[in-house]
Design a protein that fits this description.
two-stranded antiparallel ribbon; 2 helices; two-stranded antiparallel sheet; alpha+beta
C-alpha cells in the first residue's frame, strides 16, 4: 500500500511542477532566463540541440502540459487503486455474522 501512496505523492508533485512551469512567464534555458534573440544550447547524451527564444518558450510550455497531464493520470490511477485497496481491506476485516438462530 505504501507504493500506492508514493505514486500518489509523485502524481501530485508532477501536477505542481507542471503548473509552476505553465505559470512561469520567463523563458528559461536550464536555470538561465532567456531574452528574445538568444539561443539555448543544450547537450544530452552527446547530442547538442539549439533552440531559439520562441522554440524554447514552446518547449517549456509543452513540458508543463505533459507534466500536468502525466501528474493527473498518475494521481487519478493511484487514488482509485488506493480507494479500492482500502475498501477491500475493510471488507476482509469485518467479522462474519451469521443470521440469528442458525449455526
Amino acid at each position: 500500500m505504501y507504493r500506492i501512496v508514493i505514486g500518489l505523492i509523485a502524481g501530485v508533485g508532477l501536477l505542481v511542477v507542471g503548473a509552476l512551469n505553465l505559470s512561469d512567464t520567463a523563458v528559461k534555458c536550464g536555470s538561465k532566463v532567456m531574452q528574445p534573440g538568444e539561443v539555448c544550447t543544450s547537450t544530452r547524451k552527446g547530442i547538442t540541440t539549439d533552440r531559439t527564444y520562441e522554440q524554447q518558450q514552446s518547449y517549456n510550455h509543452r513540458i508543463g502540459v505533459f507534466s500536468v497531464g502525466g501528474g493527473l493520470v498518475v494521481t487519478v490511477v493511484c487514488g482509485a487503486v488506493l480507494v479500492a485497496t482500502v475498501r477491500r481491506r475493510r471488507e476482509n476485516s469485518r467479522p462474519m455474522v451469521s443470521p440469528s438462530g442458525q449455526q
